[in-house]
Amino acid sequence: MEVFEAELWAIGRGLDVAIEKRETLQMHGVKTVAVFSDSQAAIRRVAHLEPGPGQRLARRINRRARSLLSHGIATKIHWVPGHSGIPRNEDADRQANLARDACGSTVIERPYTSASNRARRISEGRSAAKAEWEADKCSKHFSYRLKGKAGTKRPISMTSVKSLAARFYRLKSGHAPTGVYLKRFGHRDDDKCWWCGGTVSQMREHLFRHCRR
What is the pLDDT of residue 187? Predict the structure, then answer.
């Protein structure tokens, strides 16, 4: 569970306690339950139920608040600055740290998985795969070292610095920013060569054989 989700879960848990003790609250004439949190992000998330990170927990909090309201008890959520010496906030922080560091503590699996958590795991997986590919394909000097047949001479692009090799392969595969390429993707109104007076299409053959530049 992410820290953001934990903050939302804690707000919901506070309302759970209020629901459990609603009869006692009503007996003492309590009309409003106040929940304090030092997470401004969690408080902003509770204010709306739009799709996004924390939506399920925000809906859960909203249901708890409606349940309390049906018993004549309103809910207010307030922000309190964290790590500022406020006694109850400091107590909550210490209890959270103790729970985190406790040996042999039981991890409770929740019946939800946040979209942000899944997105983070996917991003981490992609980063790990990219790092593995770079470690395999690139040397410490950032030049390509693609494997070739034994005894064959490697093209210059394979032993060049990465930025130069990238330009070579973009040009070879037709993805270099020539006039034809830029027009195809809507970045220019025409495909004419800007170095030759705008009369000839700027293709690879033109650049290598006929361009005045």
Answer: 87
Secondary element (H or E) of residue 32? strand 32-37
Residue 141 counted as domain residue: no
Helix or strand or coil: residue 150?
Answer: coil
Q: Is residue 104, in this structure, part of any structural domain at all? A: yes
What integer pLDDT is reported at residue 146 of this predicted model?
47
CATH of the domain at 35: 3.30.420
Q: Give CA–CA dist 212/42, Å, rounded.
A: 62
What is the CA 148 to chain-centroid distance, rounded?
38
Domains identified in the chain, total number = 2
The reply to whether 67 falls in a domain is yes
Q: How large is the angle between the packed helices 55-70 and 3-20, nearest 10 degrees? A: 20
Residues 75, 172, single domain; the answer is no
pLDDT value of residue 20: 93
HEC string of 64-127 equals: HHHHHHHCCCEEEEEECCCCCCCHHHHHHHHHHHHHHHCCCCCCCCCCCCCHHHHHHHHHHHHH
In a domain, 149, yes or no: no
pLDDT in tens, 67-96: 999 999 999 998 888 777 777 777 777 777
Are the C-beta atoms of residues 49 and 62 closer than 8 Å to each other? yes
For residue 84, what are the domain limits?
3-116
Residues of the chain under the 50 pLDDT cut: 105, 109, 144, 146, 150-151
Beta bridge partners of 34: 76
